[in-house]
Design brief:
Tnp_DDE_dom; two-stranded antiparallel ribbon; about 10% strand; Nucleotidyltransferase, domain 5; six-stranded mixed β-sheet; Putative transposase; Transposase_InsH_N; about 50% helix
Length: about 500
């Protein structure tokens, strides 16, 4: 017997649903606000190449989806922390907010995935457009900005990394297999020509191409960031070679001039010179050059092999809080009111070389923003960076005024340990002393302590609220586009939170 005090459960009850989906959600809901922002910004870059309506149920000749709809859906999905194209498709079917975002025309997950992949280059303009919308509302205070980087996992496994020697073997394997296939075809001419590849040619070919790309990345890394011992030996060889060239020119010129004077019966000009091959000073310098050339060869032989990843050759093995991972280094410049003014994915392991290019790009983004409330153009006043960006070059390069920590100690007034007299830091000690003086000012100390509270929460928002702990795409260009998409969504959510008039 059913108790009469319970509410009845009537799953067969008929309803009259609202015919206008604008009545499904309140007017101040986040989805309406995101779609309004998409209507306000310039989306012409997304219309230059319309994405075809390709799905498991598509029909040839069917019209494509509206790029503005797909862009609005994708931005709203990232605002809600949903990045999986399959989950976005599922929520378009069963989640009323996503159904409103797609206008009831549910796109297949392949359409969403292709749209995100095809238009990664346009996400840069999207990021700048969204930042301008926030600035027009009186936000994006850039009197002080903070710079920091965070490691985000690549769409590649760490165990797919291989040493250079193994990558070369993989790259050469397909050549050997192709030659063997050609020989077998020539020997078996009675069966006629065949346009089919061997059953195992596809995967090795793809692996060989990935191995060659990984080797090219390693070569570029070695040129950009050589091994310190090898670089020192190369500099020594160059100095020794320059000295030998100088002495050879001087000794040879003097010897030939004296030989000419002797042939003409004239007095010898200067001290008598021996043949260059027998000149003691020149011979000593040639021996020194040979010694350094052997040392360079030894250091090159002893240099540890670098590694490349077969799945995503652009990614790098990077140090994380707990061990190592196959990652990208996501750099962000954040304003004092927690808006991301610049975001860029890099495969540079260290932050040290990224300060100047990141600040230059941040300044360009800020200069393109509308004027502030007083009508003055926006400029970055001061930049804050931790010790990971410390270098003499970063202390003295062009750009805004800066505060860069000189060590990891929480006490900024602690002097930096003295450098070796042979190091560049010792020779440019004046720049370090000037930064020490800046950091000893209590006002600058209080300002620098704002760095962690400014940029690190945005790192957390990108990872936790946007769900970007692992990139969905592969390759540096696509990864950078996805980061800018997540940064644009983060700025939109920050705008909505600041306005306080949007519900989710």
């Amino acid at each position: 017997m059913v108790a009469k005090s319970y509410r009845p459960v009537q799953r067969d009850q008929l309803f009259l649903m609202d015919q206008d989906m604008r009545e499904w959600l309140p007017k101040d809901h986040l989805v309406w606000w995101v779609l309004e922002v998409i209507e306000r910004i310039d989306t012409s870059a997304f219309h230059q190449q319309r994405s075809r309506r390709t799905s498991a149920k598509s029909v040839a000749g069917q019209r494509g989806y509206d790029p503005d709809m797909l862009l609005g859906l994708l931005v709203f999905a990232y605002c809600m922390g949903e990045r999986s194209s399959r989950q976005i498709e599922r929520r378009c079917r069963y989640d009323i907010t996503f159904r409103v975002a797609c206008g009831g025309d549910v796109p297949d997950h392949t359409v969403i995935s292709r749209f995100r992949s095809e238009f990664v280059g346009a996400f840069t303009s999207l990021f700048c457009e969204v930042l301008a919308v926030c600035a027009q509302a009186g936000m994006v205070r850039v009197g002080t900005v903070a710079l920091d980087g965070t490691k985000i996992a690549a769409n590649a496994a760490l165990d797919q990394s291989r040493k250079e020697s193994r990558l070369r073997e993989i790259a050469e394997q397909v050549v050997t297999e192709a030659a063997a296939a050609d020989e077998s075809t020539l020997e078996d001419v009675d069966e006629g020509p065949s346009d089919q590849t061997g059953p195992q040619m596809g995967t090795p070919t793809a692996r060989a191409m990935a191995a060659r790309e990984a080797l090219a990345q390693i070569a570029a890394d070695r040129e950009r960031r050589p091994d310190p011992e090898v670089a020192a030996a190369e500099r020594a060889v160059k100095r020794a070679q320059d000295t030998v060239d100088e002495w050879e020119t001087k000794v040879t010129t003097s010897y030939e001039r004296q030989q000419k004077a002797r042939a003409e019966g004239k007095p010898l000009p200067g001290k008598p010179m021996t043949h260059p091959d027998k000149h003691r000073g020149l011979r000593q310098r040639r021996e020194r050059l040979e010694k350094w050339q052997k040392e360079l060869a030894k250091r090159l032989a002893d240099e540890s092999e670098r590694r490349g990843n077969l799945t995503d050759p652009d990614s790098r093995i990077m140090k994380e809080r707990k061990g190592f991972g196959q990652d990208y280094n996501a750099q962000m410049v954040v304003s004092d009111d927690h808006f991301i003014v610049m975001a860029e994915a890099t495969n540079t392991v260290s932050d040290r070389t990224l300060f100047e290019p990141m600040m230059a790009k941040a300044q360009a983004n800020v200069a393109a923003l509308p004027p502030d409330a007083q009508g003055a153009p926006r400029t970055i006043g001061k930049a804050l960076a931790d010790v990971g960006y410390f270098s003499v070059e970063n202390l003295t390069c062009a750009g805004p005024e800066r505060l860069i920590a000189l060590h990891k100690s929480r006490e900024l007034t602690t002097p930096r340990p003295s450098a070796s007299k042979t190091s560049q830091q010792y020779r440019d000690r004046s720049a370090i002393l000037a930064m020490e003086d800046k950091l000893s000012d209590p006002a600058n100390q209080a300002l620098y302590k704002r760095r962690g509270a400014t940029v690190e929460p945005m790192n957390a928002h990108i990872k936790d609220l946007r769900g970007l702990r692992r990139f969905a795409m592969r390759g540096l260009a696509k990864v950078d586009g996805e980061l800018k998409l997540a940064a644009a969504a983060t700025n939109l959510m920050r705008y909505a939170t600041t306005m306080g008039t949007v519900t989710t």
